[in-house]
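New to this. Please check both lines:
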Amino acid sequence: MGQKEHPLVWYYDQNPRFAGLINGWLFCGQDKLQPGDLSEADRRSLSRRGRKIYQDRYRDLYKRVDHMAFRLLIGVEEQGYIHYAMPVRVMDYDSASYTAQKARISSRHQEQADLKDDAFLSGFSKEDRLLPVITLILYCGSKPWDGALRLHDLLDLEPLPETLQQYVADYPIHVLDVCHTPDQRLHDFPPDIRTMFLFFKYREDPGALMRKLADADDISLDTYDTIADFAGEQRLKRFRPNVKGEKICMCRAIDILIQDGEQRGEKRGEKRGEKRGFQLGVDAEKKNTERERQRAEKAEARIRELEQMLNL
C-alpha cells in the first residue's frame, strides 16, 4: 500500500464509515450493518511455512462483525493502481487468515487436551468452524480496472482438455471500480461516501462534477479532508471552515476551485502575453539589425566593384 491510499484507510477505519461502505456495496444501500456491530480484528497475519519460514502480512482494513446469527470477517484493500495478479494476492491473504484461525483453534485444543484419534492428528474437531472472510478491493484509479477478476483469468487453461479444466479450482475477487461504476449504483452509498466517489469519478471534468453534485448534501469535515488529501487538491484546505462539526457545501468548494483556476490561468496568460510581447520586440529589433547589415554589405560590395572598374 502506498502513501496515496492512507487517507482512505484512515477514513474507512472509522466504524460508521466502514459500515456505510459495506451497506452501499454489499447490501445496495440497506442499513444491514450498524457501526456497533463492528469490532477491530488483528490486521497482522503471521503464518509459518516450514520449520523456519514465517510470513507476516498486514491488511489495510480488517474488521470483525458479530451480528445476529453469523460472524464475518471483512477485509478491504484500498487499491490505487491495478494489480494484475490480484486474485493470487487475495487468495494468499484469505488463506493466511484461515490458517491463522485454524492455528488458534488447534492451540486451544492442545491446551485443553480434548481431542482424540483423527481429530487429535488434525488439531481440529469435526464440530470446529472457521469465520468466513470476505475481501473487497476498493479501486479509485482513473484507468478502468482491466485486471483479472478470478484466478482462472490468470491461468493458461487452453492446453488442458475441458474434462480436466473443471477440476482446476477457481477464485473470484470483488472489485469496486469507483470511477467506472454507473452513477445510479454510486447513489446506493451514504451521502458523504457518494459525494466522495462522485468527486473521484468526475474530478477531471469540473462542469460535470458541478452538475453531479448540484443537489448533494453538505458533507462532514473528515470527508472533505479525505477527498482533498486523496485527490492531492490541497487548495481545498484553504476553503474549509475551522469550526468543528460544521459541514461543507462541496459545490461551493468546487466553484471556488474553478474560479481560482481561472484566475491562475489569466495570470499565466498575462505573463505569457508579456513574455510574448517582449519577445516580439526583440525579434523585430533583430530583423531591423539584420536588414541594416545586409544593406551595408551590399553597399560595400558595390564600392568594391566601382573601385575595380576605375582601376581598369
The longest strand covers residues 70-79. The chain is about 50% helix and 15% strand. The radius of gyration is 33 Å.
